[in-house]
Amino acid sequence: MTIPQYSDVQVGDELPLMKLRPIDRTMLALYAGASGDHNQIHIDTDFARKARMPDVFAHGMLSAAYLGHLLTHWVPQRQIRKLAVRFTGITQLGHIPHLTGRIAEKFEENGEQRVRLDIQCANQYGEPKLVGEAVVALA
Prior knowledge:
Elements: E1 18-19, H1 25-35, H2 45-50, H3 60-72, E2 80-87, E3 98-109, E4 112-122, E5 128-138
Antiparallel strand pairs: 1-3, 2-5, 3-4, 4-5
């Protein structure tokens, strides 16, 4: 990983687009086990249909984890100062997460050079499912 330098980035610069594999049932079961979130709406089709959903769908926090993954492919985890997200849509089976980030601000705080990023997890159709911001320290 080549760690970006504060002097080399500008407001408006974008992180490399990260496309992940489609959401499937196996992924949801594995995430439920790893996270301890066994809410039936994410793993039981009959339960989801009784809740008037067409099928199970991804945990919102799975998309949040993906955004963390986007950041740690750009900088080491120790450089992340803030990660805040807001859920904006449901990630259905078959959706392909597309993770993006854009530098929105450069600033100094607590003796560090930092950037604020606008981040998003959308599906392959460009429909946002999770939006947020992150602050990272750069050298």
